[in-house]
Design a protein that fits this description.
By secondary structure, this protein is α+β, with helices and mostly antiparallel strands. The protein is 31% helix and 35% strand. The protein is built from 1 helix and 9 strands; from the N terminus they run αβββββββββ. The chain has one helix at 9-62, and strands at residues 70-72, 75-80, 95-102, 105-112, 118-124, 127-136, 140-142, 153-160, 163-171. The strands form 2 sheets. It has a 5-stranded antiparallel β-sheet with strand order 1-2-3-4-5, with helices on one face. Strands 7-6-8-9 form a 4-stranded antiparallel β-sheet, with helices on one face. β8 and β9 (163-171) form a beta hairpin. The longest helix has 54 residues, at 9-62. The protein is elongated. It starts with 8 loop residues before the first helix and ends in a 6-residue tail after the last strand. Pfam families: N_methyl, T2SSJ. Keywords: Cell inner membrane, Cell membrane, Membrane, Methylation, Transmembrane, Transmembrane helix.
Length: 177
């Protein structure tokens, strides 16, 4: 009696088919995880860029000199003072800061008192819409500053990238709660 042990050709084909299906399912799962991670990473970068830009605007508004906010359609300008230098000492000179939308980019322009050098900083790309409003007790919310009253608050509404509308309301200096 000659008894051979081993696998038949049919058993080998079935085993290879099962391993191929498991490999394909594993590849699809891995590809889905990688795509999800890439999407989450891009979303995180977009949020960080937006947070950084809004943080710069907040800092400038909180350090604004009372009564220096000038708002015209699509343009905000203010003077800031008492920001910290690299040695953490307060500065005494004023700095004029303005924000403008050029194309799809939000720009911050700043020039110090007594210096002709203007610094330009791109805050955000892919901006779909930008609007500013100020609030004063006499007229409420409006899109331009009036010469007779100092605004109490500033509102920023921006649509950027996948964020349809982000709205921030900031109290201006010298306003008591």
């Amino acid at each position: 009696m000659n008894k051979q042990s081993g696998f038949t050709l049919l058993e080998l084909v079935i085993a290879i088919g099962i391993f191929a299906l498991l490999g394909l399912a594993s590849w699809r799962l891995f590809d889905g995880v990688v795509r999800t991670q890439q999407g989450a990473g891009q979303h995180e970068r977009d949020i960080r860029a937006l947070q950084r830009a809004v943080g710069v605007i907040e800092r400038d508004v909180w350090q604004a000199v009372a009564g220096s906010v000038v708002l015209a359609p699509g343009h905000l300008q203010l003077q800031r003072s008492h920001w910290r230098n690299p040695l953490d000492q307060p500065r005494s000179e004023r700095q004029t800061v303005s924000y403008r939308l050029e194309g799809a980019a939000l720009w911050r322009d700043s020039v110090g008192e007594g210096t002709p050098l203007m610094q330009q900083q791109k805050l955000l790309d892919d901006v779909h819409g930008l609007s500013w409003r100020v609030f004063d007790r006499q007229r409420g919310w409006h899109s331009e500053t009036a010469g007779d009253t100092a605004p109490l608050a500033l509102e920023l509404s921006v649509s950027v990238g996948r964020f349809e509308q982000v709205r921030r309301v900031l109290l201006l200096p010298g306003v008591l709660p």
